[in-house]
Fold:
Amino acid sequence: MRVMQFPQALETALQTLERMRNESAHRPCASRSALDALNQIAPVRENLLEDHAPSATRKQNEGASSSKNDLGVDNAAPSKAGKIDKLAAVQARVSVCTKCPNLASSRTQTVFGVGNPDAEIMFIGEAPGADEDAQGEPFVGRAGQLLTKIIKAMGFAREDVYIANILKCRPDVPAGSFGNRAPTTREMQTCRPYLMEQIGIIRPKVIVALGAVAVEGLLGTRAPMRDLRGRWDLFNGTPLMVTYHPAYLLRNQSPLEKRKVWEDMMQVLDRLEKPISEKQRNYFL
Ligand code: URA
Structure:
């Protein structure tokens, strides 16, 4: 296939799959790895489409130097402004998403993600709770305050990192009931492409998966957290550290458990080649 035809061909393939999914009794099937591969192309696809876009659209991405490889794909690091635009475009789609009709009708608003589009670290949680649903920002409730404390102890501001969830909608709970419900596997799979796009745009150096739901949503792995945490995995080539969800630490105030999360975060700092002070080494959350 000639490079000039690639964006149109990809667009046509995606439109056909969408149409089959919406109109046909025989829904297209694809393995998780095939979907991941397609979603990895998404940022590339946007780059290629921009090359064919009117100059006004291209101008938005000025600031990134353009060194193209043989396929015509931009090798240069995308500019922060370009990332902001791309995230805003995904966020606009998420804000009107109705793929899970039950969540679309129960949510106050979608909760996309927050932070630095150029972040080195991306923290990924489970799903918005009541506070996040009300405020439209992830991790703003009690668990979020603890996450912010962890981020600060690492030497970052909340604005330095990027925070998102597997689900962009609060899982619905029966009227009048309290608490949260865990996302279903189907809901996670439905929402996953949005997160893939976020990761593809931000390109963090490290991903931190907070809790078992985040691990399942990202890696498809189900196992007890005590077996998963503190280990490096790879998510499409990006190092991924698994640690406990801050809500677990709120339920279990044992200093031992807090220390485990802190040790996981020190591994993250090491990986990013950030200096760790003596005070940080001895820190208990
Ligand atoms: N828990 C999560 O996993 N995400 C949030 O945004 C808030 C609480």
Summary: Residues 1-5, 42-66 have pLDDT under 50 and may be disordered. The beta strands are 114-115, 121-125, 162-165, 206-210, 232-235, 238-243. The radius of gyration is 20 Å.
